[in-house]
Structure formats: C-alpha cells, structure tokens
Amino acid sequence: MLRFSLLLIAISTTIVSQAQKPFELGGEYMRLIGKGYNNAKAALRGESFSNKNSFSAGITYQLASKKAYSVSHGFGVYIGYRYAFSDKIITKGSSPFAGARILFSLENFEGKTSRNSLLITPFAEAGYHLVFAKRIYAAPSIGYGYTLKISKDYNSMDEDNGGRVIPSLSAGYRF
After folding, report:
1. Distance of CA 86 to the CA centre of its chain
2. Which one is predicted more confidently, 138 or 39?
C-alpha cells in the first residue's frame, strides 16, 4: 500500500509539473510505399511537447500485405522529433510541423524463415497537427525515407532496401 501511495504521489507531481508541457497518447497508421514494397504499420505512440519542439516514441506492428512479393509480420519501435512552425502548438495545439524519425523494424517473412530481418528506416516528414475540443488530436503527415536492411538477407527478393513514401495519420488524447 505504501508503494502504491508513493507511486500515486510521484505521478501526481509529474502531471502538475508538466501542466504547461502537453503530452499526447494515441495510435498511428503508417503506409510504407516503395518499389515492389507496400506495407502498413499500426502503432501506439506518445509525444511530449516543449515550446515548438516535440519528441515522440512508438511501438509498431507490421500488418501483412498481399501487394508485396514477400508477406511479412513483425514488431518495431521508432523515435522522432518534430518542430512546430507556430507558437499555438502549446496553447491551441493546431500547427504545421516538420520533423524526422528513425524506425527500427524486425520483420519475419512468411514461408521463408523463422528468423527476423532488422530494417532501419530514417525518414523526414511534414504535416499538420490539429486539436479538437482541447483534448482530442489528429496529425496527418507525409514523409520520405530510405530503408536499409541491417541483418542477413532472409528474403528472396531485394524489395526491402530502397526509398519509401510514408503517409501517416495519428490520433489520440492530449493530457
């Protein structure tokens, strides 16, 4: 009970101290489109704001796509940075932004092997951050990046390396 009380006090103190620094928690849908490669990822994401800057992190799951030669599943993580072009990002929340992310993916190609392939995709993005009713947010964006295969090639085609157009939509709750 004492541990729970201390945890509650710590969380309350953190929330009060971060009152002027919004935090967002939500979901995201990303589509990675490249030559011979067309997959989607769903993510749980968090983003913390400080003035015009924000830092985000997320956990992704790759959804299977029949449009690519190799059907794959897998988990990943990403970290990112965004810069807002307006001071309204803290007070009203709506603002255009630009930023960058690095996506680390472990993909398991069906029917090929039980081993995962590590892929890293750094990408730049631009979009618009919208806040509705002071607490609900949506942020459509478009990005471009390049996927690099880091681990041994467990896929019979070389569709995994290359440029990617990455449209995405995130939405959730602002604390």
Report:
1. 22
2. 138
Residue 16 lies in a domain: no
In a domain, 45, yes or no: yes
Between CA 41 and CA 38 the distance in angstroms is 10
Domain count, the chain: 1
**Domain of residue 132, CATH code:** 2.40.160.20
Asked if 163 contacts 143 with a C-beta cutoff of 8 angstroms, the reply is: no
CB 139 within 8 A of CB 171: yes
| Residue 16 clears pLDDT 50, i.e. is over it | no
Residue 14 belongs to a domain: no
Cα–Cα distances (Å) from 154 to 27, 76, 111, 129, in that order, read: 30, 17, 10, 38
Q: Is residue 101 part of a domain?
A: yes
Exposed (0-12), middle (13-18) or buried (19+): which is 15, by Cβ within 10 Å?
exposed
**Residue 81 CB contacts under 8 Å (≥ 6 apart), including other chains:** 53, 54, 55, 56, 99, 100, 101
Q: Is the dihedral of CA 161, 38, 143, 104 positive or negative?
A: negative
pLDDT tens-digit profile of 40-74? 899 999 999 988 899 999 999 988 666 555 566 78
d(CA 165, CA 121): 11
Report pTM: 0.81
